C-alpha cells in the first residue's frame, strides 16, 4: 500500500509539472500521462481490496478512508488542470497537488504490527479526544456566575437578550452536576478501555478481532452522544435529551465480556458501572417531574 501511494504521489507531481508552463503536452503525452495516473489509482484500489475482511472492520475502514482520500485528491487535481483558463501553474493547481501529496503521506499513519489492535487503539484515542474536549468545554461554561451566552451581542431588532431561558436556574445546575458526572464517566471509561486494549488486546483469532471491532463501534457511538448531551445541557436544559443520551452500559458490558478484560481489569469496570448507575439515578430523580 505504501508503494502504491508513493507511485501515485509521483504521478501527481508529473501531471502537475506537465501543465505548469507552456507549451502544453501533446496529445500523445496526455494519453501517456492519463494512463500512468489511471494505473497508479487502480493499483491503490487493488491493494485496498486485497486487504482481507477478516483482518478487522476497524482496520479496513481506516485503509478505505485513506485510499478514498488519495483517489478524490487525484480527481480534484485532474479537474483543476482540465478547467484551468491559463497555461501556467495556478494557485488552485498548487493546492490540489499538495492535497494529493498530503493524502499519500497518510499511509505512514496507518496501523502497524497487530493491525486491527492498533487500528482500534487509534479509533478509541480519537473518541477519547472528542469526549475530553466536551468535558473541558462544559467545565468552563459551568464556572460559577458565568453566562453561557456571554459572547452573544444584543440584537438590534429584538433588543436586550434578557430572556431567563438563556441562564441556568439552580434546579438546572443540580441536574447539570449529574450530567457532568456522566460525561466524566464517559471520559474515564474510554481512557480505561483504551489502556486495556493497548495492554491486553490481541488480533490472533477471528473472535478477538471481532471483539476489538465491537469495542471500536460502541466507542464511536459514545463520543457523539456525549456531544449531544453537552448541547442539551445549555439553557434551556432539555431533561428528556439528557436522559436519552446518558448511557455507557453497553461499552462496559462488551469490555467485560471481551478478551481485553482479564480478572485484573474487572475492578475498574465494576467501579465505573456503579458510577454510571449513580449519576443516571440522580438524573432520573431530577427529571422525574418533567415526564
Automatic annotation (TrEMBL):
Keywords: Cell cycle, Cytoplasm, Nucleus. It comes from the Eukaryota. The keyword Calcium does not apply. The keyword Nucleus applies. Residues 1-142 form the Cyclin-D1-binding protein 1-like N-terminal domain. It is found in: Cytoplasm; Nucleus. Residues 154-247 form the Cyclin-D1-binding protein 1-like C-terminal domain. Its main location: cytoplasm. Pfam families: GCIP_C, GCIP_N. GO terms for cellular component: cytoplasm; nucleus. Belongs to the CCNDBP1 family. This is CCDB1 protein. The gene is Ccndbp1.
Amino acid at each position: 500500500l505504501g508503494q502504491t501511494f508513493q507511485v501515485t504521489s509521483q504521478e501527481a507531481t508529473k501531471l502537475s509539472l506537465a501543465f505548469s508552463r507552456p507549451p502544453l503536452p501533446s496529445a500523445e503525452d496526455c494519453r501517456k500521462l492519463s494512463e500512468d495516473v489511471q494505473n497508479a489509482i487502480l493499483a491503490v484500489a487493488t491493494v485496498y481490496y486485497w486487504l482481507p475482511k477478516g483482518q478487522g472492520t476497524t482496520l479496513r475502514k481506516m485503509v478505505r478512508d485513506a485510499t478514498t482520500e488519495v483517489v478524490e485528491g487525484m480527481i480534484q487535481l485532474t479537474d483543476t488542470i482540465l478547467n484551468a483558463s491559463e497555461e501556467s501553474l495556478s494557485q488552485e493547481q498548487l493546492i490540489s497537488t499538495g492535497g494529493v501529496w498530503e493524502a499519500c503521506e497518510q499511509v505512514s499513519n496507518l496501523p502497524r504490527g497487530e493491525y486491527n489492535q492498533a487500528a482500534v487503539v487509534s479509533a478509541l484515542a480519537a473518541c477519547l479526544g472528542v469526549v475530553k474536549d466536551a468535558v473541558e468545554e462544559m467545565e468552563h461554561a459551568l464556572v460559577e456566575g458565568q453566562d453561557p451566552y456571554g459572547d452573544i451581542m444584543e440584537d438590534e431588532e429584538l433588543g436586550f437578550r434578557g430572556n431567563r431561558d438563556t441562564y441556568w436556574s439552580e434546579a438546572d445546575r443540580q441536574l447539570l452536576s449529574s450530567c457532568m458526572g456522566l460525561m466524566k464517566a464517559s471520559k474515564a471509561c474510554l481512557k480505561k478501555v483504551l489502556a486495556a486494549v493497548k495492554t491486553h488486546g490481541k488480533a490472533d483469532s477471528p473472535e478477538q478481532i471481532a471483539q476489538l471491532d465491537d469495542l471500536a463501534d460502541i466507542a464511536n457511538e459514545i463520543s457523539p452522544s456525549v456531544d449531544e448531551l453537552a448541547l442539551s445541557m445549555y439553557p434551556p436544559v432539555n431533561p428528556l435529551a439528557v436522559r436519552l443520551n446518558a448511557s455507557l452500559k453497553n461499552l462496559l458490558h462488551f469490555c467485560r465480556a471481551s478478551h481485553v478484560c482479564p480478572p485484573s481489569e474487572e475492578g475498574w469496570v465494576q467501579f465505573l458501572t456503579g458510577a454510571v448507575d449513580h449519576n443516571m439515578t440522580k438524573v432520573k430523580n431530577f427529571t422525574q417531574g418533567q415526564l
